[in-house]
Amino acid sequence: MSASGLPFDDIRDLIANLPSADRAAIRAKREREAQLTKPPGSLGRLEDLSEWVAGWRGSATILRPVVTVFAGTHGVTKQGVSPYPSEVTQQMVTNFASGGAAINQICAAYDLGLKVFDLALDYPTGDISVEPAMDEKTCAATIAYGMEALAGEPDLICLGEMGIGNTTVAAAIYCALFGGDPADWVGPGTGLDDAGLKHKAEVVARAMETHKGHLKDPLEILRRVGGREFAAMVGAILAARTQRVPLVIDGFVATAAAAILHKMEPSALDHCLFAHVSAEPGHIKALSVMDKVPLFALGMRLGEGTGAALAAGIVKAACQCHTGMATFDQAAVSNKAGT
Ligand SMILES: O=C(O)c1ccc[n+]([C@@H]2O[C@H](COP(=O)([O-])O)[C@@H](O)[C@H]2O)c1
Ligand SMILES: Cc1cc2nc[nH]c2cc1C
């Protein structure tokens, strides 16, 4: 803890002292890229991806990619904001452990490790429409716990989550951070109908009213209208940065955790890639407010880190191209027309 004894101060200190990408590694990567057997720039955004990995890792090599899924339960589910009961969160964590979820199959397809962190699932956070989700100590401790995502020294992290009710919480975070009407930020989540959507917007509006006057500081927003998986994802993003590990953000929900850091210091997300734009309507809006361009849009809205894991497959292929391709000299391929 810092000298003042306030746990959030440690997080602020960390954000004030983040490392930058390695310029020399990026220069070396560009020099090799120019010699590979293809027209310059012809691998499009794949070339940006391998450069992004090289900038944080020193070379465009990925040996230990891991998907981390943070699961939390939410008091706001009492308000009837999800078509599914809160118990589904624990049930899906059990499903992850036995290999039956979508994320297990994507990890298998791309040879990605999977780690699931359940965050006190028997103790839902406070109902954000009437009270803070967490006290400061719990919030700071959960941020610290999220830093465990770095255990095992992964060299690429995909950030995902599971938590019935958490699209309401994500909408509240966006509304508090970026303003606008609650209706701009809520969406069907796991499948609400129009009446459910209207009610969800009212619940988010109530949360804004309950916490008004306390929504200037992003960490206070996280504590009041966030949830445990959001706090843990903030910790994972920060720990990845301090250890220079590139990190891929999943959908609408994971992006809300990233948005907390973006509001504090936009460059805090320089090591992050936004995998996809989710079908949840507020996601495209959040990405454009932060000026982030996602890799793809496949109409996915599952969470679990599935979009991020798919993106990791693309990142792996981009790095393999960079490290495995022959140069013009090696392959005796003419580098320019007529030579
Ligand atoms: O992140 C997304 O893009 C996303 C969009 C819709 C639903 N989800 C997932 O659905 C769950 C939350 O939905 P809900 O309707 O219970 O708020 C949670 O487990 C999320 O992972 C996730
Ligand atoms: C079954 C189910 C699986 C999920 N995975 C992520 N969010 C989910 C929500 C539900 C309801």
Automatic annotation (TrEMBL):
Coiled coil: none annotated. SUPFAM superfamilies: Nicotinate mononucleotide:5,6-dimethylbenzimidazole phosphoribosyltransferase (CobT) (SSF52733). GO terms for molecular function: nicotinate-nucleotide-dimethylbenzimidazole phosphoribosyltransferase activity. InterPro entries: Nict_dMeBzImd_PRibTrfase, Nict_dMeBzImd_PRibTrfase_bact, Nict_dMeBzImd_PRibTrfase_N, Nict_dMeBzImd_PRibTrfase_sf. The keyword Transferase applies. The active site is at E304. It holds the Pfam family DBI_PRT. The keyword Transferase applies. Gene3D superfamilies: 1.10.1610.10, 3.40.50.10210. CDD domains: DMB-PRT_CobT. Its EC number is 2.4.2.21. GO terms for biological process: cobalamin biosynthetic process. It comes from the Bacteria. It catalyses: 5,6-dimethylbenzimidazole + nicotinate beta-D-ribonucleotide = alpha-ribazole 5'-phosphate + nicotinate + H(+). Keywords: Cobalamin biosynthesis, Glycosyltransferase, Transferase. Pathway: Nucleoside biosynthesis; alpha-ribazole biosynthesis; alpha-ribazole from 5,6-dimethylbenzimidazole: step 1/2. Belongs to the CobT family. PANTHER family: NICOTINATE-NUCLEOTIDE--DIMETHYLBENZIMIDAZOLE PHOSPHORIBOSYLTRANSFERASE. This is Nicotinate-nucleotide--dimethylbenzimidazole phosphoribosyltransferase. It comes from Fulvimarina pelagi HTCC2506. The gene is cobT.
